[in-house]
Amino acid sequence: MSNDKDNFNMEDLAATLNYEDHAGLLNALKDKIQNLSGHHSDVLENLSPVVRKRVEVLRDIQNQHNEIEAKFFEERAALEAKYQKLYQPLYTKRYEIVNGIVEVEGISVEAEKDQEEDKASDEKGVPDFWLNAMKNNEVLSEEINERDEGALKYLKDIKWCRINDPKGFKLEFFFDTNPYFKNSVLTKIYHMIDEDEPILEKAIGTEIEWYPGKCLTQKILKKKPKTGSKNAKHVTKTEDCESFFNFFKPPQVPDDDEDIDEDTAEELQNLMEQDYDIGSTIRDKIIPHAVSWFTGESIQDDEIELDGEEGEDDIDEEEEDDEDEDEDEDEDDKKTNKKGGKSHTGENQHGERPPECKQQ
């Protein structure tokens, strides 16, 4: 007989959502179903009465499917809320150990021995934990430069939570007191048009309160005065530069779409996709598996996956090369046949047919 906590009771799971979130989710799903069921396509008007009747039955089946799908989304949200609560105590323990708030059981004796050998050692917790975890990820390592590392050493924790009005999720970066900026928490919020697709509507970041001369997203350029000019001062100019902290200043879609040309729209879309890729990487990979990224174990897992994908690409390229070689042989055969007055039957000089193109 299974334990009560192992029983899958959807009423209990739904209770993990607060009333407003739960009601908002249901209303959104109901609206979606009503829109789908109430939409009449012009296609129906062009169908014969018999076929139209069949399509109406199919639409009824689709509506039934949508109702079941709505329940699936509701239960999935409740299930996710349940497990987020189960993760929290583990994340709290991780936070306390990483930041030296609590000591790991049984480590104090060893620490005393180490201090006798090296009295200068006073490290607490796990230094540069989040910095190194992110640097070991291929997506995030491209965003972090040497200038950022000094500030990211003060990063104490990263959290995320789902938001329901509007739909999306929020990332929170908690920093210790540092010489770079005043903020103790930097946030990044993603608003989704359809979270299950997902389609990104916009992203909102915290405005960072940099201390004077410490801004990492801009660099100050000093221009020397012209030779011979008297009492001239150096001219200073600020210029945007690459930095991880640009993540909190995401690309924005103009209110008036008419102001965007095709090239600008494509560039903006690429920037938004890249921004979302960074955010989802932090949410789905770094936060739940931070220790594995810190130790480098997750790098190996990613490399195995990439090797598998590259292997498939290599096979495809080899097959394409073989096909190209066969086509070249066919061309040579055609030339030979033309010279000899022979007809070409599709067989090569070895009496074999060239391989057929692989259907994708």
TrEMBL record:
Keyword terms, alphabetized: Chaperone, Cytoplasm, Nucleus
Segments of this protein annotated with the region Disordered: 294-360
Coiled-coil regions, chain positions: none
Listed InterPro entries: NAP-like_sf (IPR037231), NAP_family (IPR002164)
One Pfam family recorded for the sequence: NAP
Biased composition (Basic and acidic residues): 344-360
Compartment(s): Cytoplasm; Nucleus
Domain of life: Eukaryota
GO cellular component: cytoplasm; nucleus
Family indicated by similarity: Belongs to the nucleosome assembly protein (NAP) family.
Residue spans of biased composition, Acidic residues class: 299-332
GO biological process: double-strand break repair via homologous recombination; nucleosome assembly
GO molecular function: histone binding
UniProt name for this protein: Uncharacterized protein
